[in-house]
Amino acid sequence: MVVVQPMRPDGGTYQSSLVLPAASAVAVPEGASLEEAATLSMNALTAVEALDLLDLPRGATLLVTGGAGWLATLAMPLARERGLRVIADARPDEHDAVLGHGADEVVERGDGLVDGVRERAPDGVDGVLDAALVGPAVFGAVRDGGGWAVVRGQDDPTERGIVRHPVWVRDRLEDTAALEHVRDLASAGVLPMTVAGRYPAARAADAHRRQEAGGVRGRLVLTF
């Protein structure tokens, strides 16, 4: 199981073989296929980095946006492992799945998000992992001085002392200990490994079109 910076001069993982630092590779989770293991590393390390930056104490409340997406699906059990209370947003038909992935409570996504969160956390959540890129519209759900972990470099100004935490997974690409921890949690069944579809490398464009269409639950994998 490896993780690679896709913008590096030698290219990312769209190739049958590659050279990378030993620190960026660990054994696959116990009983997992290579395709299943491939679903984990990038998104799980992104979630780890976001949670580390937010640095919330046990018992704190975390909002995860995009609750049915793959980043959120991995972030929620990682947050629960740290003793956090997790609120996530989702469509009505996704509520059961999101609860099954580790959310303590689920609110409606969209315009009612802030009101739904405030009903469950009247003082506001302590932090938000904004996997759905909601942006400043989520600030109303966050307490004064809370944290906002952003995964696509959003640089919007905040309010009420909310602290913006830019998440760059590239900072963790050689964090062997984090990779091993993610691997061990997957081996124990704490983290899912969901292959939403397999595509031969020659059909990479088809995989991108499916991803861009939305609604993918899990990860699409290229095979060589």
Automatic annotation (TrEMBL):
Record has Nucleotide-binding as a keyword: no
SUPFAM superfamilies in the cross-refs: NAD(P)-binding Rossmann-fold domains (SSF51735)
InterPro entries tied to this protein: NAD(P)-bd_dom_sf (IPR036291)
Species name: freshwater metagenome
Keywords: NADP, Oxidoreductase
Entry annotated with the keyword NADP: yes
Protein name: Unannotated protein
Pfam families per record: ADH_zinc_N_2
GO molecular function: NADPH binding; oxidoreductase activity, acting on NAD(P)H
Gene3D superfamilies, per database record: Medium-chain alcohol dehydrogenases, catalytic domain, NAD(P)-binding Rossmann-like Domain
